[in-house]
Amino acid sequence: GSDLVSGFWGKVDAHKIGGEALARLLVVYPWTQRYFTTFGNLGSADAICHNAKVLAHGEKVLAAIGEGLKHPENLKAHYAKLSEYHSNKLHVDPANFRLLGNVFITVLARHFQHEFTPELQHALEAHFCAVGDALAKAYH
Q1: Which of 46, 69, 94, 127 has the fewest Cβ atoms surrounding its Cβ within 10 A?
Q2: Is the pTM of this model over 0.85?
Q3: Rounded distance, CA 113 to CA 103, Å?
Q4: Residue 126 in contact with residue 8, Cβ under 8 Å?
């Protein structure tokens, strides 16, 4: 599973995929916008999809998820600071981590239609789920 994801991950453009995924999250699940009030205009799907702060943060998030691939045995420790930050400072509902993982899967499937096998989807979902669990650690 993780070898499959690692091999695939090198093809993923964090800027394009990450930005699109975070923008999609904010459009599809509008209540998540409350965590991004400092990001400027989130008034429409078009505004969100062209918002430079949204796109940059999406890239940052996807890059951080990719970094987790280097620490598969120790995700909770790897993401401990981010978990604390999202829990204590941002008060992000941890259910949103799963939503974002689902949106990433959707966007990756859209961009990599021919390579997006059920096996790859399974491996990606396992990784996103593990990252979400690690990020939710500070909530327990």
Answers
A1: 46
A2: yes
A3: 15
A4: no
pLDDT digits (tens, 9 = 90+) for 57-66: 999 999 998 8
The binding site comprises 57, 86
CB atoms within 10 A of CB 3: 9
Query: Which amino acid is residue 101, in one-letter code?
Result: G
- Report d(CA 103, CA 110) in Å as an integer: 11
Tokens of 110: 């859209």
Residue 58's identity, in one-letter code, is: G
- The enclosing domain of 10 has a CATH number of 1.10.490.10
Structural domain count, the chain: 1
d(CA 109, CA 107): 5
Count how many Cα atoms sit within 13 Å of the Cα of residue 71 in the half-sphere of its side chain.
15
Tell me the residue range of the domain where 80 lies.
Answer: 2-139
